[in-house]
Amino acid sequence: MNINVGLISLGCPKNLVDSEIMLGKLSLSNSKQYSYKIVNQPELADIIIINTCSFIDDAKKESIDTILEVIEYKKDKCKAVIVAGCLAQRYQNEILKEFPEIDAIIGTGNYEMITDVIENILIGEKQSICNLPQNVDYLDSKRVISTGSVYAYLKIAEGCDNNCTYCIIPSIRGKYISRTINSIVDEAKLLINQGIKELVVIAQDTTYYGIDLYGEKKLPELLRSISSIDGDFKIRVLYSYPELMDDALIREIATNDKIIKYIDLPIQHISDNILKLMGRKGTSVKIKELLMKIRHEIPNVILRTSLIVGFPGETLDDFNLLLDFVKEYKFERLGVFTYSREDNTPAYNMNNQIHPSTKKSRQKKIMYLQKEISVVRNKNLLETIFDVIVEGISEDGIFYFGRSYAEAPGEIDSRIYFTSIQPLNINDDVSVKILNYDGYDLIGEAKKP
Predict the structure, then answer these.
(1) In CATH, what number does 385-446 get?
(2) Is 279 exposed, middle or buried (0-12, 13-18, 19+ CB in 10 A)?
(3) Is the pTM value of this prediction over 0.90?
(4) Coil, strand, or helix at residue 69?
(5) Is residue 235 a contact partner of residue 191, using CB atoms and an 8 Å limit?
(6) How do the domains of the chain map onto residue ranges?
(7) How many helices (H) and strands (E) would you count in the chain?
(8) Which CATH architecture group holds 2-129?
(9) Ordered mean pLDDT values, 10 residues apiece, the chain (449 residues)
(10) Is the dihedral of CA 165, 169, 173, 178 positive or negative?
C-alpha cells in the first residue's frame, strides 16, 4: 500500500536534522506492507508529522497553532497526525488530553521508531512514546537533506550539560552525548559526495564536544578531521559557547582554510549579576577578553551573538551595561530575545520578574541600535567584492540571491541579492560587487567571469 507522508519541521536546525532522519527512515523503509512517499503538500498526505519546538513561548505557540491547523486535514484525506519532538517530550500528557485527534506522540529519544509507529497507527493503535535520548546512534542514519544542494547541517551531539537557569533543553533533550569523530567524518563524506558545499556544524553547544566521550574538548580535532576530506567544501561552526572557547579552537579557525571565519557566540548578557543568575560560567571580563582575542587572531572575522533581555532581576543599570556593550563591540550579527518564563526551570521561580512591556521595550532598544550598527557596516561594504554561492532566484525573477562567508544559512542571517548578465545555476560560485543595501540585506551585481 502506498502511503503519502508529509512532515512539518519547526524550530532550530538541530530539530531539522531530526526531521530529515525521520524522512530518511521512511524513504528507506523495507516494509513489506507499506511504501512511503514524501509529499510537500499537506493536503496530499495520508499521514502528517509535526516535529515541534518548545524552547520559548513563541515556539510553543507556533507548535500548537500548527497542530490545530494540521488536525483540520483529518476531515479530508489525512488519516493520522503525529506530534514529535520537543513539545511532545515536554507536554506529552497535556497534548493527549487537549488534542484527542492526535494519533501518536514521539519524544526526542524515539525518532528512529517512526516507521513502527506509523505501521501501528495504520492498524488502529494509537501510540505515545516519549523517552529522553540515551545515545546518538540515530544520528548515524541516512537522512533526506531538505536544505537543497548548497549546504547541510552536521549534528555532532545531542543534549546539553550547561544547565542555564532559563533553559528547558536538558529536560527535553537529556544530557550531552557526543558522536564519535569517525561517525561524524563518515557522514561528512556522504554529504560532500552529494555535492554539498558547506557543512554547518551544530549541537546545543559545539564547544563542549568530546568532553563526555573523550574526557577533553575535541572540537579542534574534529574540525581538522573533517577538513582533511577530499572535496570542494567549507565548514561553518555554530553555537559555540564563550565559556569553553579556548586558544586551540581560535587557532584552528584562524589557520584552517576550510573553516569559514564566522563565529557564533551566544553570550546572552554582559552584566555579571545577570550572568550569575542565568547560571552562566563566564564573566564580563572574560567575555570581553575573548572577543578582543578573536578579533586580533582572525582578521575580518564575522561575530554573531544572541542576547536575552528582561531576565528576572535585570535592573536598568544591568540593561544599560548591555546596551553600552553592544554599542562598543559592534557585532556583525546579533539577535535579541525577551526572557521567556519557562516552567520547570530555576528562573521560573526567581524574584523580580520583569514586566512584559519592559522586556519588549528593552529588546526594541537593542535591535534599533543594532540596525544603526548594520547600516554603518553596510555603507562601508559598498564597492566591496564578495565570493557568493548562488542559492536561488527572488520571487520577482530579477535578482539571484546567495550568501558569502559572512552570512549563515537558513533564516539565521541576511542575504546578498544580485543581478547577473550571464545565466547562473544553483551552487555556482560568483564574485559579487556590492552596490547598495536594503535593511540588513546587501544588493549588488555579479562580475563577468
Answers:
(1) 2.40.50.140
(2) middle
(3) yes
(4) helix
(5) no
(6) 2-129, 137-380, 385-446
(7) 14, 19
(8) 3-Layer(aba) Sandwich (3.40)
(9) 93 95 91 88 93 90 94 90 94 92 94 93 88 93 92 97 94 96 97 96 97 97 98 96 96 97 97 97 96 96 97 98 97 96 94 97 97 95 96 90 93 92 92 94 89
(10) negative
